[in-house]
Structures are given as structure tokens and as C-alpha cells.
């Protein structure tokens, strides 16, 4: 059986943006999740660093498929390629992992951390627009677009309570 091949030219002509959906956005969200986790669970610091390495490889070499999701009997599992070629299975219901490190220490391993971060970073973006003051998200209709000031840029959106508390002028 001959595999039908996409002409190389056509493939290369695609803008890098379309290679992976929102690559930069995903990388930025992974970074933010890693920072959030570092602040929240300082004891995991070293393992978070190793999980970050897994995620960097996952993003940089999509063909290696370092982290995959496999559904068996209706239950999702993450499969993570270890550096030695072994594939470990992470259960997202309790973040247990089939690797020796998890079994030896009975603690969250780097594979589970990497999957947790990837899962959180891959969630669809929350609905609504972000208020520049409080950072929460609101429907556009309850937000106010403000003028350039010391605090805000021209066209920034504030939620109504933040706008009332501020002295920002409506654009
Ligand atoms: Zn593991
Ligand atoms: Zn607000």
C-alpha cells in the first residue's frame, strides 16, 4: 500500500501559525500554570522543574508525542514518554502514575505534574472579557471602555464595579 503524500512544497508553504493551534498561546498558558503551581506548592519545586522539561519537549517536538491521551473503558489516561523510552500511564482521577518514582515515594511525580499543567493550560479560554483592574471576566455589556490615563491604556475594559471605583473616564 502506498501512502499518499502531501507535496512537500504545499506543506512548507503553510504559515507556522497553523502548524499547531495556538502554539504560542498554549506555551504562554503552560508557563503561567507552572508559575501558579510553583507558588502554590513550593515543596514540589524540583519536580515542577522536571515536569516543565517534559512539557518543553512536548511542545518543541510534536512528532515525539511525549504526552498523549488514551481512553480505555471510558476512562481517560495520559501516556507520558519517559527519557529512557518507557511509557508511563498517569490517571487524572487521582494523579497516580505507573512510574517507579510514584510507587517508591507515593507522591506526585513529574509525569503527573506535566499532565496536570498541560490539562489546565489546554482548557478552552474562559468566556467573557478580562477586566484590566480586577482581572476577572465579564460579558462585554457590563464593561466600560476607558480613556488613556496614568493607570489605563486607551480602550482598556473595566467591569462596572471597578470602573465606579476608579476615576477613569469613559472613552
Ligand atoms: Zn510518573
Ligand atoms: Zn473589574
Question: In oligomeric terms, what are we looking at?
Answer: single chain
Low-confidence blocks of residues: 10-21
How many beta-strand elements?
8
The figure for the number of domains is 2
Radius of gyration: 21 Å
Ligands in the model, by name, code or SMILES, are: zinc ion
Structural class: alpha+beta
Helix content: 25-40%
What overall form do the CA principal axes indicate? elongated
Query: How many separate helices?
Result: 6
Distance between the termini: 64 Å
Mean pLDDT level: 86
Q: What does the main sheet amount to?
A: 4 strands, antiparallel
Taken as a percent bin, the fraction of beta residues is 15-25%
Largest sheet strand order:
1-2-3-4
- What series of H and E elements makes up the topology? HHHEEEEHHEEEEH
What does it look like?
The chain has 171 residues and is of the alpha+beta class. It folds into two domains: 105 residues, no CATH class; 37 residues, no CATH class. Helix content is 38%, strand content 18%. It is built from six helices and eight strands; from the N terminus they run H-H-H-E-E-E-E-H-H-E-E-E-E-H. The strands form three sheets. It has a four-stranded antiparallel β-sheet with strand order 1-2-3-4. A hairpin with a 6-residue loop joins strand 5 and strand 6. Helix 2 runs antiparallel to helix 3. The chain is elongated. The termini are far apart. It binds zinc ion (2 copies). The site of one zinc ion (ZN) has 7 residues, from strand 8.
Amino acid at each position: 500500500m502506498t501512502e499518499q503524500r502531501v507535496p512537500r512544497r504545499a506543506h512548507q508553504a503553510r504559515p507556522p501559525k497553523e502548524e499547531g493551534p495556538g502554539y504560542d498561546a498554549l506555551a504562554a498558558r503552560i508557563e503561567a500554570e507552572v508559575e501558579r503551581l510553583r507558588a502554590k506548592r513550593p515543596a514540589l519545586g524540583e519536580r515542577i522543574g522536571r515536569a516543565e522539561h517534559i512539557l518543553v519537549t512536548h511542545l518543541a517536538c510534536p512528532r515525539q508525542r511525549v504526552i498523549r491521551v488514551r481512553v480505555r473503558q471510558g476512562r481517560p489516561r495520559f501516556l507520558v514518554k519517559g527519557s529512557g523510552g518507557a511509557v508511563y500511564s498517569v490517571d487524572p482521577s487521582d494523579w497516580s502514575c505507573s512510574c517507579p518514582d510514584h510507587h517508591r515515594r507515593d507522591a506526585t511525580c513529574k509525569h503527573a505534574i506535566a499532565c496536570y499543567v498541560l490539562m489546565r493550560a489546554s482548557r478552552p479560554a474562559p468566556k467573557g472579557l478580562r477586566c484590566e483592574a480586577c482581572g476577572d471576566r465579564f460579558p462585554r455589556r457590563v464593561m466600560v471602555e476607558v480613556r488613556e490615563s496614568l493607570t489605563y491604556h486607551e480602550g482598556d475594559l473595566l467591569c462596572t464595579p471597578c470602573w465606579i471605583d476608579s476615576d477613569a473616564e469613559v472613552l
